[in-house]
Amino acid sequence: MNARTFSFEFFPPKTQEGAEKLRNTRRQLAQFKPEFFSVTFGAGGTTQEGTLNAVLEIRQEGFAAAPHLSCIGSTRANIAEILQRYRDHGIRHIVALRGDIPSGMVDVGDFRYANELVSFIRETHGDWFQIEVAAYPEFHPQAQNAEADLRNFVNKVNAGADAAITQYFFNADAYFRFVDEVQARGVNIPIVPGIMPIQNFTQLARFSDMCGAEIPRWLRLRLQSFGDDSASIRAFGLDFVTELCDRLLQNDAPGLHFYTLNAAGAVSTVWQRLGL
Ligand SMILES: Cc1cc2nc3c(=O)[nH]c(=O)nc-3n(C[C@H](O)[C@H](O)[C@H](O)COP(=O)(O)OP(=O)(O)OC[C@H]3O[C@@H](n4cnc5c(N)ncnc54)[C@H](O)[C@@H]3O)c2cc1C
């Protein structure tokens, strides 16, 4: 089996306190020796400096870092400038995304879809960057239909992606089916499952509605039945997410990408229970 890739995702902190908390989180997660830490990027460039600063700090600490880059609302000149800055800092790994159109945005800019960003990166920088793209085992919420979404994913990979990270999901079969379907269409890059720890039901339900990740009925009802008992939600969530990861790895998933929400606790527990 090929070596597996483990990575942790952060968002750029907005305050000094947030930055300090993230440093602590990183210190705790660094002991697991992930392949890289990634840092999200607000659509429309709202976190441009924050993303770069967080990535530079991670690299100063001696770890590999991959900034996310979303293209919606940007011009070719904006994106070219950001890529050049990353390159000047020696960054060689990017998570390339379309991003979500912020409400009220009228001008979508020069890029409509992530495959156009991937092509642009390859045209302007050749193989300098390792490019990750997003995948949606339960389909993207704005997809015209499932078939079109699969086709669009294959186009994005063919534009020059090296690997993909999935939206989070709680149904492992959706992931296995997605991988089978795109492999049948010729995709052979690693598709790494994105893992969301379950910590707070209300927040999770809101996120999931927005991004199109399904919380299966049985899981939603179990989580709801804990009411305000957050300790029980977390304990149940840890059991569930550990089992999910275990099943994915047992069935040859090429690694795991954890959505940490800048906290180390749940992710560390899952990691230790998996015995990685
Ligand atoms: C791992 C991961 C990390 C993320 N990080 C960030 C982040 O840092 N910042 C951020 O803003 N967002 C982030 N997102 C969210 C992401 O930006 C949104 O889900 C966004 O809506 C889609 O981005 P994409 O790159 O998947 O888009 P695309 O691949 O462009 O797909 C978007 C939609 O367009 C459709 N489509 C694609 N090509 C075509 C075409 N040629 N014609 C018609 N339809 C087409 C697709 O089927 C899909 O429905 C992340 C998502 C994931 C899974």
Molecular structure report:
With 276 residues, the chain is α/β, with parallel strands linked by helices. It has a single domain (5-274), classed as TIM Barrel, CATH 3.20.20. Helix content is 47%, strand content 16%. The chain is built from ten helices and eight strands. It has helices at residues 16-30, 48-60, 76-88, 114-125, 146-158, 172-184, 201-211, 217-225, 230-250, 265-274, and strands at 5-10, 36-39, 65-70, 93-97, 130-135, 163-168, 191-195, 255-259. The chain has an eight-stranded parallel β-barrel, surrounded by four helices. Strand 2, helix 2 (48-60) and strand 3 form a beta-alpha-beta unit. Helix 4 runs parallel beside helix 5 and helix 9 packs across helix 10 (265-274). The longest helix has 21 residues, at 230-250. The protein is globular. The mean pLDDT is 95. The structure holds flavin-adenine dinucleotide.
Characteristics:
alpha/beta, 8 strands, 16% strand, binds flavin-adenine dinucleotide
What is the fold's blueprint, element by element?
Blueprint: E1 5-10, H1 16-30, E2 36-39, H2 48-60, E3 65-70, H3 76-88, E4 93-97, H4 114-125, E5 130-135, H5 146-158, E6 163-168, H6 172-184, E7 191-195, H7 201-211, H8 217-225, H9 230-250, E8 255-259, H10 265-274
Parallel strand pairs: 1-2, 1-8, 2-3, 3-4, 4-5, 5-6, 6-7, 7-8
Bound molecules: flavin-adenine dinucleotide.
